[in-house]
Amino acid sequence: MASVNRVFAAQLSGLPVFGPDGESIGRVRDLVAGLRLDAQPPRILGLVVELSTRRRVFVPMLRVTGIEPTAVTLATGSVNMRQFVQRPNEVLVLGQLLDAHATLTASGTRITVVDAGMEPTRTRDWVLAKLAIRERRGGLGRRRSTMQVLPWPEVSGLGLADLGAQPQGAGQLLMLFDTMRPADIAATVRDLPLKRRHEVADAMDDERLADVIEELPDDDQKELLAYLAEERAADVLEAMNPDDAADLLAELAPADQSRLLELMEPEESAPVKRLLKYSSDTAGGLMTPEPVVLTPDTTIAEALAHIRNPELPPALASMVFVCRPPTATPTGRYVGVVHFQRLLREPPAELVASAVDTGLPPLKPGASLAEVTRYFAAYNLTCGPVVDTDDHLIGAVTVDDVLDHLLPEDWRETGLHDTLEEHRA
């Protein structure tokens, strides 16, 4: 083990993990500690490491040979690939201790845990020796207290029963999420205890929560949506991509589906209702109704400005769709597409009409998943138009939506590799 006196948990979050030969293993997502019945600092049992397949595995601390500011290094040996499952006597340091409410043992002062520092012992163990805390002060206009670092025994109220019963904020955890992609946040949220998961959902804004829900497995999506108050659930559905919102609503009972659609703003629910008319395994069910649609007299420069939008998914930015007005789906007469590479090669002042690819056949909304897959493979596309029988563009299918439906239903939970049925060390 590299000589380190103290490491705070928040510093480890997201650090890359490498094997002894420099091979990439994954990233640190949490620390697992074993809580004790007495007041002594809990021992760090190991790390929760997220592999490239999104599978989260447990790595014992005895396997860790180096902790640096930029990476964690493991000793020689195989990594147990079994999915991490939290045991009854264990606590997730980032997922459960951060933002926990406790008291100072001597004075009874109420405090909030901001971070936790682990230190090595002479026996090569690591323990949560220190806690970074902030005093909780009520009332308006009160100054925010300064942070202190105290030994573990000076803080009480952090037992498993305490953590399971008390309300807990999510500010520190959300700060860690700021540097993570929605898919990684979703994987973290899935591993949290149910109460903690709900607290995190309560603390997120609607847009961020919508991004995370889109990356959760179906059962977790439904559970989280059911937890939310109906008005907020409708707001979150409005913030989701219409195709993802339609997929989620399609899993609900008809009465729940209708009630949530009624609570949504009409302009937000309209495209979702159109998508719900199609089977989920057809082009109409897979498509998004919000691609980049331009009229023929739009300039190349304007088209490039549209696909530079950082909020536009890469697959949708791969082409623009040229249609007669109106440009909202269902559009006027469909003309064709312009691939973004063609846009890069044309003079900015030229019109997109001069660069339209009219030879790419569009998909029909009733095209099966197999037909859509062959279409993408045949034309080497990441996005394709869906046009109805009246020659109106009604949406676009992206390759990520196709992959979502081609992969096994539990791919978000298990990854793409076989698991090794081994007991955790």
From TrEMBL:
InterPro entries named among the record's database cross-references: CBS_dom (IPR000644), CBS_dom_sf (IPR046342), Mg_transptr_MgtE_intracell_dom (IPR006668), MgtE_N_sf (IPR038076), MgtE_transporter (IPR006669), PRC-brl_dom (IPR027275), PRC_barrel-like_sf (IPR011033), SH3_actinomycetes (IPR058838)
Keyword set includes Phosphoprotein: no
PROSITE patterns the UniProt entry points to: CBS
GO CC terms in record: membrane
Alphabetical UniProt keywords: CBS domain
The CBS domain, residue ranges: 287-354, 356-414
GO molecular function per UniProt: magnesium ion transmembrane transporter activity
PANTHER family named in the record: MAGNESIUM TRANSPORTER MGTE (PTHR43773:SF1)
Protein name as catalogued: CBS domain-containing protein
Species this chain originates from: Amycolatopsis eburnea
